[in-house]
Amino acid sequence: MSKQTGKRGAEVDVxxxxxxxxxxxxxxxxxxxxxxxxxxxxxxxxxxxxLSLGDAKALYQYENFIGFLTSFKAxxxxxxxxxxxxxxxxxxxxxxxxxxxxHAEVYISFxxxxxxxxxxxxxxxxxxxxxxxxxxxxxxTTVLWIIDAVRHFxxxxxxxxxxxAAELRAQYPSIVGIGIGGDEAxxxxxxxxxxxxxAKAAGLRLTAHAxxxxxxxxxxxxxNIGAERIGHALAAQRDxxxxxxxxxxxIPLEINVTSNVKTGCCSGYDVHPVRHYxxxxxxxxxxxxxxxxxxxxxLGEYVIAxxxxxxxxxxxxxxxxxxxxxxxxxxxxxxxxxxxxxQYGW
Length: 346
Hints:
The protein is built from 17 helices and ten strands. Helices cover 51% and strands 16% of the residues.
């Protein structure tokens, strides 16, 4: 796979070509970007007996979705204060830039701060903003924030999260949208209809994780409460009418192939629907979710898409353009990035 013949007849190094292709990441959790090396640095700050790199890497090993949640908790527990959030934000931007990512829209869980740490979010937002601004200045990759509520914590907790996002948006325009993650079965999207209407009225953009671990009804519910983008959408393939609606309305799908396989929500790469969705005219975007937890990153996901699912380089360019088009950037910024993708060649 590493070499292909380009338009001008010359050999192309595909991985290098995909690395340099201007890409946008639309489904990435800040707390899920902590690499083992960063975890060691956090452990040195806070643990009486700091983790070795080997110990840190062992925390990222798991066998199923419950094991993933346990690993995720073990990693995020090392985030003790705002300074740690500034560190992981800066490191995230540096890592994204190294993969050719020009823009990212990143989920932050206020619930971890409110309900696990029992603290107010303002100092943490100040910290991630410091990390974002330093990262953008040093590496050029832009970042917007999507504030994520844990749906199975209930509507009242989500209301607190979304209203705080709306309040902080006045001070931090980089806070651009809201979403719901967590257990779909215990937190159906239709419970959040009024909150989504309120968030939209406050100028926030709307996303929702849906159809990752339950059926197509979750995606229908997300669409019905106004979600502009759908995270995962694995179950859409089981509903022909839903597939037609997604294609007709061109609702962007935040596809996370390796995540779906590693969590067991999809039984293997061979049965993942990403190619079927693309061929059916759905607006597919490629994303990485929680990269170190799944042993991949956005560049790796592009390589997997090209290698395992047979996307041509021209189709990979289309996937990159889809993500920029589906972003919550202002129109002028979108146009600039779309032109960079269009002019990128081989």
